[in-house]
Design brief:
Spore Coat Polysaccharide Biosynthesis Protein SpsA, Chain A
Length: 326
């Protein structure tokens, strides 16, 4: 069936003004109905630059505090739902990512079944040729026995979309993806079928959790390889599971436990037996002076994650994760 054409872009930014400038320029080159930018209390002149823009499609939200990516997308989605009644779909991405030219036209040409509630575009690195691994869509191996066996044999590629799928022109059903180039049918939020992104997660895994919850609500998630995006995330290519500043370790492992709980269901206790030790073992990828603090942060993240306690403020997390160099 055909779908409405009012597609809104939602962008979250924090202290990456130079990247944001390119993202906004590339986004404006596409025929979006509106473009909502959530400025997460940036301190690098992003506010003044955003306020200087005159395109009438732009809607700027200046958050008084940094809410993280999860909180920023929560605000952006809520604005679309509440303030843009003519919006039919939204697509979200970070301030270091952008749609390639013609994405809106490709979107408008799609015939989207009513039970497809979300879609993932194909995300590449800045050269437009290499696939951005951190944005590769996937299936939940716990929901698909074949993928479960594939995961055991092939690891990550046992349940992620293959390279060949990126060359196809046919949409592919998947379970989840990142928020870079992620399209959401707004009516499903308005009708209460799905909610808003979980702001308490701050950063990491909020996107995958959101889409798994959408799938559990009975909505399909498509991977559409013809809708292409680029993501300037070169620093994460071939990287070990290492996060700096160290406060990112806390969010990574705390939120992963919530992700594993949602994804694995009755298998969750067994997953914990495997994953929690693996969290602690990544200490070996850090500097020796960081070992003690890393293990302390990981223990705190696991404790809070197991109890589903998301009450710590970002300021408290950062303070607790500082390292004294001896």
């Amino acid at each position: 069936m055909s779908h409405p054409v009012n597609l809104v872009a939602v962008i979250v930014t924090f202290n990456r003004l130079e990247k944001l400038k390119e993202t906004i320029a590339r986004t404006l080159d596409n025929a979006f109905y509106k473009i909502v930018v959530v400025n997460n209390a940036s301190t690098d002149n992003s506010r003044d630059w955003l306020d200087s823009l005159s395109d009438t499609r732009l809607k700027i939200i200046h958050s008084p505090t940094n809410l993280g990516g999860a909180g920023g997308f929560n605000q952006g989605f809520a604005y679309v739902v509440e303030k843009l009644p003519k919006a039919d779909w939204l697509v979200c991405f970070d301030d270091d990512a952008y749609p390639e030219e013609g994405v809106v036209d490709i979107f408008n040409a799609l015939s989207i079944p009513s039970d497809v509630g979300s879609m993932a575009g194909a995300v590449y690195l800045p050269d437009g040729k290499r696939i951005s691994e951190m944005n590769r869509p996937s299936n939940n191996p716990f929901w698909h026995f074949g993928q479960f066996i594939g995961t055991a044999r092939k690891g990550r590629m046992g349940f992620h979309v293959s390279d060949e799928s990126y060359d196809s022109e046919i949409p592919l059903d998947v379970d989840t993806s990142s928020f870079v180039g992620c399209f959401i049918r707004v009516a499903n939020i308005r009708d209460g079928k799905i909610g808003l992104p979980r702001s308490e997660l701050f950063i990491y895994a909020d996107d995958i959790i959101y889409l798994l919850d959408s799938r559990k609500a009975g909505l399909r998630h498509w991977f559409v390889p013809t809708m292409k995006f680029r993501h300037d995330c070169e620093t994460l290519v071939n990287q070990q599971d290492v996060y700096r500043p160290l406060w990112k370790v806390y969010y990574t492992y705390r939120n992963r436990l919530e992700l594993f709980r949602i994804a694995s269901g009755i298998w969750y206790p067994l997953v914990l037996l495997v994953k929690i030790p693996s969290f602690f073992m990544t200490f070996r990828f850090y500097e020796k002076f960081e070992y003690k603090k890393f293990l302390s942060i990981t223990a705190s993240a696991v404790w809070d994650g197991l109890r589903r306690d998301y009450s710590k403020s970002h300021e408290e997390v950062v303070k607790n994760c500082s390292v004294d160099i001896e």
